[in-house]
Amino acid sequence: MIIAGILIGFWGYLMVGNINLSIVELSTHEVKQKLIQFITFTILFESLYCFVTLYCLQLLMAFPTIIHIARYASVVFLFFIGFWSILEKNNSAVPFHANIVRRGYWSMIIHPQQISFWFFWGIILIQKGVLHIDVFSVFLFTIANAIGVFLILLCYACYGKKIFFYLNLNRKQLKFFVGIICISSALLLLRTMFCF
């Protein structure tokens, strides 16, 4: 269970997105205190979504309307962030940097797709006998997931800039790439919701 939690936490933030892009920006342009604060808040909100969703999994399974609402909210949010990233005009580095970090905070706090994400993984882990829905098991799994999230965010903080430089991606291209990922994720979610 602990290994599964760490691996899922690591994998969940592996793809470039608003949060890990904000980590790279903060590690490059800000003091360490702001970077530590951002990582701490990310792990806190990730843990809250993980624990609450998994603990309430049986309730969510009994009321599928909650899942549908979360999915619709996820689609709207992903489209909003995606088009914001693509269409935003950048007049200078300072507001550009601030907008990236602002989107990172929004993605961290308002993250309804986390409910669907943990609902999906929760069912798999329960069916495989890896996770039991009791307070202690869910808490232990949440701690393991937080460790995985911390490890991947630490990698982005330490090596993200080098990775992006190696890939020869500039900020504008990264922002466009993140926007495409968000819109693609929204379309994929719509496809799974309507099965077309």
Describe this structure in words.
By secondary structure, the protein is mainly α. It is 84% helix and 0% strand. The protein has helices at 2-12, 18-29, 32-55, 57-62, 64-87, 93-109, 113-127, 135-166, 171-194. Helix 1 packs parallel to helix 8 (135-166), helix 2 (18-29) packs across helix 6 (93-109) and helix 2 (18-29) crosses helix 8. The termini are far apart. The relative contact order is 0.23. Residues 92-96 have low confidence and may be disordered.
Distance between the termini: 34 Å
Shape, per Cα inertia axes: globular
- Strand count, sense and closure of the main sheet? none
Order of SSEs:
HHHHHHHHH
Class from helix and strand fractions = mainly alpha
Strand content: under 5%
| Strands, count | 0
Radius of gyration: 17 Å
Low-pLDDT windows of residues: 92-96
Count the DSSP helices: 9
Task: Please state the average pLDDT score.
Answer: 77
Helicity level, as a percent range? over 70%
